[in-house]
Amino acid sequence: MIDFDLVLFDDATARSWMPFTLTRPAGELLFGALRTRERAERIVDAACIGHVTHSDLIGFDEPAAPPVINLSALPISRARLFLSSRAILDWDVDLDFEDSTTLFVGDQVVGWLVVEGAPAPDEAMLLNPHENGGDTLTVPGKVLEYPWDLIHQNGEQILDDVAYLIDEVYSHDVEDDGVFVIGDHPVVRKADVIIEPGVVFDATEGPIWLDDGVTVRAFSRIAGPMYVGRNTTLLGGPYAASSIGPNCKVHGELEESIILGYSNKAHDGFLGHAYLGMWVNLGAMTTNSDLKNNYSNIRMWTPRGEVDTRQMKLGALVGDHVKTAIGTSLNTGTVIGAGSNVFGGMPPKYLPPFSWGADAEYAFDKFMECASVAMQRRGVPLNASQRDMLARAWQRGRERQ
């Protein structure tokens, strides 16, 4: 069997996953109980040495995440597995490579094993993956097509992840005074979790995973399948079938949503079938609609034009570093570009990146000042490489307006 390094790549479809891929590679999106990169590393048993995506993302820098790398700078002294960031392989996949191999999920090419000394696939092949000769291997899994697939398949992914990962946890008993557990799925409690009296865990439909350092305040009702990431605080309210990344504060009603990390929804308001990026702050009573009054399919903006999502329920896609004012209302299928400051009631269904309100541009120096303060409050510095990457994102955002 060949030892190899893992490289995740964003093809043309993944690079269009706005508003998220303006400021991060698709492999650094939370899905289920892990980021897609973290899951891929565990499944293929190899560390990811970097992401290959739009060159403007070089300089991406987040704790524990590999960098965005230049394709031409990749060493050829070891074998490399190039894997699509949209490919979600099954946990029990068996990768036993003997030579250069094209990897399939179903009828879609999702990557290649490139042996030591062989050149990497070129940019054209990464944008449009196709077979390039040699061996082929078809493995079980799925390929995500749109960013809202992350939302609608999230509950099923939590079930799969917890079923595999639960063996890593020595104890998953919740026996705190005044805390009630109903249902037969496990409630996983990792280190230093604090659960106040008056909390209900409903594990009827799926497991609930509380990662290290989670705090659950009184009057919270948590229904699985649910993943709550490290050092997150649930401040009270009904939470159902969601994934919340590390270091978040969440209050009010949350249903079938994903919050990537370091984001706050600390006040009342409904968030349903939505995805929030990192460093998002929702002002008090910010609420999204996820169901149209006539129950018809929800249409959503994409860089390639408006798409019928074929979904009856879909809330908002909110990019990194977005802030909303108190009382903000988001319509079904709203897309808010990264770095936007949203105020004035109900914004349009699409706000370009770095918007100031509904019809102005957020000055870059003012945006950077706000982003730096928000990150420092959580003890995370905004370093020079991240500043440069955000500057390029701001320029690309202007081009999209």
Write the layout of secondary structure elements.
Blueprint: E1 4-9, H1 12-15, E2 30-31, E3 34-35, H2 36-44, E4 48-52, E5 79-84, E6 87-89, E7 101-105, E8 108-114, H3 123-127, E9 135-138, E10 141-143, H4 148-152, H5 154-165, E11 179-182, E12 187-189, E13 194-195, E14 199-202, E15 208-210, E16 215-216, E17 220-223, E18 226-228, E19 233-234, E20 237-240, E21 243-244, E22 249-250, E23 253-255, E24 258-261, E25 264-265, E26 270-272, E27 275-278, E28 281-282, E29 287-288, E30 299-300, E31 307-308, E32 316-318, E33 323-324, E34 329-330, E35 334-336, E36 341-342, E37 350-351, E38 355-356, E39 360-361, H6 364-376, H7 384-400
Parallel strand pairs: 1-4, 1-5, 7-9, 11-14, 12-15, 13-16, 14-17, 15-18, 16-19, 17-20, 18-21, 19-22, 20-23, 21-24, 22-25, 23-26, 24-27, 27-32, 28-33, 29-34, 32-35, 33-36, 35-37
Antiparallel strand pairs: 2-3, 5-8, 6-10, 7-8, 30-31, 38-39
Give a concise summary.
This protein has 401 residues and is α/β, with parallel strands linked by helices.
Radius of gyration: 21 Å
Q: Mean of residue pLDDT?
A: 93
- What strand line-up does the widest sheet have? 12-15-18-21-24-27-32-35-37
Q: Give the termini distance in whole angstroms.
A: 49 Å
What structural class should be given to the helix and strand makeup?
Answer: alpha/beta
Q: Say what the CATH topology of the largest domain is.
A: UDP N-Acetylglucosamine Acyltransferase, domain 1
Strand content: 25-35%
